[in-house]
């Protein structure tokens, strides 16, 4: 059972949030984000990039720029694709 910083057990995530939670926990394990649990009702968790995580920002920005430039072409290819 996962616990927050207080004495109440944290509620496990289900549905679409489960995948997000698993991804954030993996990023925390890999040193890309930090996780802060606030003992509030309802419980609140904040994530922040670490210095290592911030090194990914230029790569993410490059992917964003690429997608802005190429998304129309990609969508046209998707529409005309015949398996």
From TrEMBL:
PROSITE patterns: HTH_HXLR. It comes from the Bacteria. Keywords: DNA-binding, Transcription, Transcription regulation. The keyword Transcription applies. InterPro entries: HTH_HxlR, WH-like_DNA-bd_sf, WH_DNA-bd_sf. Residues 1-75 form the HTH hxlR-type domain. This is HTH hxlR-type domain-containing protein.
């Amino acid at each position: 059972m996962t616990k927050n910083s207080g004495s109440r057990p944290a509620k496990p995530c289900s549905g679409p949030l489960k995948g997000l939670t698993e991804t954030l926990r993996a990023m925390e394990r890999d040193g890309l984000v930090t996780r802060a649990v606030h003992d509030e009702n309802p419980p609140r968790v904040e994530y922040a990039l670490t210095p290592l995580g911030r090194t990914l920002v230029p790569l993410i920005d490059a992917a964003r720029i690429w997608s802005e430039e190429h998304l129309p072409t990609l969508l046209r290819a998707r529409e005309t694709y015949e398996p």
